[in-house]
Give the backbone structure.
Amino acid sequence: MTFFRNILRSIYFVAVLFFETLINFLTGIDWMVISPFFLLIYYISVKSFSNNNIIPLVISGLSYDIFLSENYLGVYSILFLIVAIVSNYIQKRVQSVSYQEFLSFTFGFLIYNTINLLETDFVSFFISSLLINYLIYFFYQRTLGNRV
């Protein structure tokens, strides 16, 4: 049963990752990116982080490396795992600060975009993408409420 659950989660994660790539390709906006896969990683790492999510993250990273990336095999798998671990760590350790969620979201999003660090307009790209994605996450959280 665990095997089938991991396969279904992996298919779901890969579908969301390819959906993110498709959205950003079709919109063609150069100054920001909409990242539903990052929102998925962040949500599962903060709300329900477990070992069951490691295999789907690795498989989605490998599929992204194989089909859409020019990097070495495994770079995005490591990147996705680091985003999940750092977001969870910051969220759990910095509980006394009132803006802990935004802080962990920002660090996670910064790690998620480390591949784009060398671009000339990274700061404006990062700030606009961070605000749009955090706004989407905020409204998603408001929609779910405390039912989860």
